[in-house]
Amino acid sequence: MVARHSLKIENTPVTLRELALEKVRRAIISGHFKAGDRLVERSLCDELGVSRTVVREVIRYLEAEGLIENIPKKGPIVAVLTWEVAAQIYDIRLLLESEAAKDCAKSATSKDKKSLHQKLMRIAKASHDLDDTERVDASQAFYEALFSIAKHHIAWEIVQRLNSRISRLRVLTLRNPERQVAGFERISRIYEAIEKNDPEQAKQAVIQHLTEAASLAKSILTIEE
Questions:
Q1: Is the pLDDT of residue 13 over 60?
Q2: Res. 2: pLDDT tops 60
Q3: CA distance 54 to 77
């Protein structure tokens, strides 16, 4: 479900650039701006209520994140997410997340498990509400905690650099009817293994989750290509 977006920025102590960046990033991830759409500076200035300087900074930042491409003689567009790119992202996630889950299961304390469970319940609520934006945010919070408990801090830094594109893939696959097992159920299995302090089961749960998600993403993206 693609939520309706209002890009207008309200009064807040956060900088205009940060707010504009978050608004446009979410608009791309959610599908409000679709792959291949041109991003016209003047239109974005009007929608966001900010200066052209701010819009240009946002475009440069999102280009670095891989959400925007600058096409010669055409200007900035929403980057087209190809299976070639997505496959590399899933390969990196599979390597980093499976090892993080394994080490998380080894060392998770009762306090750690309680924190993870709270984040899992946040995913459950967002799934029940069919709120894709919140599901993406809640999933990111769950994995951030998992990596932190595992003490895989450098690995999480790598994942963070890919998070915008990971979020696009999550939205792409979350509610597809061809998904064999719901995303929440897959993440629940990861948590259950960690709760039992079972490293191998946690690792396998991640592998199963990402293998299915990658297969689904491939079927969607290769058709679009």
A1: no
A2: no
A3: 17
3-class DSSP assignment, residue 170: helix
Q: Could you report the per-residue pLDDT of 118-151, keeping only the tens digit for each?
A: 999 999 999 888 888 899 999 999 999 999 999 9
- Return the beta strands (E) in the chain as ranges: 68-71, 75-78
Closest CA to 57 of 75, 73, 41: 41
Using DSSP, state whether 38 is helix, strand or coil. strand
- Tell me the DSSP string of 131-156: -HHHHHHHHHHHHHHHHHHHT-HHHH
pLDDT digits (tens, 9 = 90+) for 59-83: 999 999 999 999 998 899 999 999 9
What do you get for the CA distance between the two ends of the chain, in Å?
22
Tokens 């469970």 belong to 117
Contact 169, 66 (CB under 8 A): no
Q: At 3, list the tokens.
A: 């939520």
Record the pTM. Answer: 0.85
Token pair 């890919």 is found at: 162
Strand ranges (E), 72-168: 75-78
* Residue 207 CA, distance from chain mean position: 18
Comparing 180 with 16, the larger pLDDT belongs to: 16
